[in-house]
Design a protein that fits this description.
This protein is of the alpha+beta class and about 45 residues long. It has a domain of about 25 residues. Helix content is about 35%, strand content about 10%. A two-stranded antiparallel sheet has the order 1-2. It is rod-shaped and about 55 Å long. The N and C termini lie far apart (about 35 Å).
Length: about 45
């Protein structure tokens, strides 16, 4: 989690963002994208 202080100046409360790149299992979107690319390469489409 990263605090977005510059973007949230003047807003009440704390604004934070989750960094998917710091997720030890990576994002589900990343795993799907890798699987699609691997499949396309195996079939010779990519």
């Amino acid at each position: 989690m990263v605090e977005l202080a510059c973007m949230a100046s003047g807003l009440p409360g704390l604004v934070v963002d989750k960094l998917e790149m710091r997720n030890p299992c990576s994002s589900i979107k990343d795993r799907v994208a890798v699987a699609l690319i691997d499949d396309a390469e195996r079939r010779g489409v990519l």
